[in-house]
Amino acid sequence: WSSAGRFHHGQSQLHRFLNTLGGYVSGLGDYSYGASGVLLQHVVGRADDLMADATTWESVAEHTELFVAFGGVSEKNSAVGPGGVGRHTTREAITRARRRGCEFVSISPIADDTFAEAGAQWLSPRPGTDTALMLALAYVLECENLVDREFLRTRCVGYPEFARYVRGDADGVPKSPEWAAGVCELTVDTIVALARRMARSRTLINVSWSLQRQQHGEQTVWAGLTLAAMLGQIGLPGGGFQHGYGSTSDIGLPRRVASPPALPQGKNLAPSAIPVARIADALLHPGSEIDYNGSTIRLPEIDLIYWVGGNPFHHHQDLARLRQAFRKPSTVVVHEQFWTSTARHADVVLPATMSIERDDFGAGRNDPDFFPMPALTRPAGSARDDYAIFWALAERLGVGESFSEGRSVLEWLEHLYTGWRGRLAEMGCAVPTFEEFWTSERIAIPVPDPGQVLLSAFRENPDAAPVPTSSGRIEIFSDTIASFGYDDCPGHPVWRRPQEWPEPGEQYPLLLISNQPRTRLHSQLDVGETSVRSKIGGREPARMHPADAAARGLEAGDIIRIVNARGSCLAGLITTETMRPGIVQLSTGAWYDPDPADPSFCRHGNPNVLTPDVPSSRLSQATTAQHAAVEVEKWTGPVPELVVD
């Protein structure tokens, strides 16, 4: 996410530099979809392939009759994508689908978490219970014989085991609408009616990335896939399953014939790797062991951190703990354009250029628009691009030629483009020369199938086009996952109550939802005009239902303190009936501004002083940044001055 440019992509530059030196502690998974990224490879295929091959928005607009969105279809997230967005198409597709008669159901604690053009029915189950709702929907489909048993028999494995669990044969608890109503706080009639609508419609089930960024996050994705398999519509135009419509702009675009060229990163010769969300654990407890995806990982001793193109003090959890962890290595080096929270916690900060100060080319992930990015201005001050910084360091370390291969930035761009053009020519796809490309506005990367439908070939002939699982089928029950013996992620979808489960009368009776912001991308440009305009008293805005605010003597515009046992932060209050009662919504990305005397207190409004640094499960060890139990009170003291500017 650090740059629209593909050559000056911060992580790629860093990995190439470290690999030239011999290697580094590498990361497993990511913060975006860490839980589902591990799960999906066992049950239907790699997450990246599933999303690149997603049924297109064009197919949705033409064929979908019922779009069930667990976690909504966020307008703000649909406007961004890794590497940028060439054209914004989601709104137009949703509008077309709605005009044709497609019905949308948004299942989220936030009413405005779906495009207004969708005219969506809003269902608001208790957060953390989406899997329980899915199990109850499955119960109705199974007990009313609304499932496609032929699809389950020929293209899936493990449905009988799952059905026994749903009926209650396995544990004595039928996952009925009556059971789910008590857990989800929806009515029985609502659950039954939705199941029957799904069965009689061309239904697409979408699960947002947000739902797997919580404890037991794998289960919601797996249960959503299982629901789609029960309906038997996977592989049909406008039907089936998807993970991430509305989470990023590229999902729903047809796969390109090839990705754009990028800087080769080399090979990491170091055998050490950790799940990315376990960075604080590794720094604080080197030598300890964790389970991960069927293996045991011994956390390495890390004495140097080199961070480029990211901001862990934005997206990691329990920031007071992370701050303590960052004191363990002897050296922390950061490349930055701004005085971010991560830069403030570094020993060495090297000023890096922005995208407009360097020559590059770019394309969004899965985006067919490929565009030149000539520099618009000279670097400010002593800033250098990441490539120049690493080349200079590599020269001092005696590996300059291995890192740079003697090429300037423009020489690299032409070299990479020319090789890429040759590979496309071998595939029968013609693109302009580099000179023609560099002076153009953009070119189009060819798209083989503009109307692609996820898993259509598998549906047509599962033996000729099996999914890349151990069985070649969609695994509703996975022998592989079951063999790991994880009680928090058994062999088929289950519901487990999360630890962050606030109740009325408890010390922390509200649930914090830490979602993505409307006015910036993650934490980027938080000090910019657009982001600052959204603040209240200089603090990040937090939204609550008016009834929750009134019960605490709060009014819109108040400066509030959100608190739990891990920490606290200030925020500016917005009251709105678009929030489910019992919820506080505070977006991520406000630059962490800790009180010098208490690093668990953020004066600005970063929710990750409140979120728990615990894994989704032993399977994925992924982040659980989405939810935290909290209380809210009015801030009555002097409002402290901010220093993050």
Write up what this structure looks like.
With 645 residues, this protein is of the alpha/beta class. The protein folds into three domains: 10-29 and 261-363 and 369-444, Rossmann fold (3-Layer(aba) Sandwich); 34-256 and 451-483, Dimethylsulfoxide Reductase, domain 2 (3-Layer(aba) Sandwich); 510-634, Barwin-like endoglucanases, CATH 2.40.40.20. It is 30% helix and 16% strand. The protein is built from 23 helices and 25 strands. Strands 18-22-19-21-20-25 form a six-stranded mixed barrel. Strands 4-3-2-6-7 form a five-stranded parallel beta sheet. Strand 20 and strand 21 form a beta hairpin. Helix 1 runs parallel beside helix 16 (386-396), helix 2 packs across helix 11 and helix 4 packs parallel to helix 5. The protein is globular and about 70 Å long. The two termini are 22 Å apart.
CATH architecture of the largest domain: 3-Layer(aba) Sandwich
Describe the biggest sheet? Answer: 6 strands, mixed, barrel
Q: Kindly provide the name of the CATH class of the largest domain.
A: Alpha Beta
Give the helix proportion (percent range): 25-40%
N/C terminus separation: 22 Å
The CATH homologous superfamily of the largest domain is termed Dimethylsulfoxide Reductase, domain 2
- Overall pLDDT: 96
Spatial strand arrangement across the major sheet: 18-22-19-21-20-25
Can you count the beta strands? 25
Structural class assignment = alpha/beta
Low-confidence stretches: none
Count helical runs.
23
Shape: globular
Q: In percent, how much strand structure appears in the residues? A: 15-25%
Stated plainly, the CATH topology of the largest domain is called Dimethylsulfoxide Reductase, domain 2
Rg, nearest Å: 25 Å
Number of domains: 3
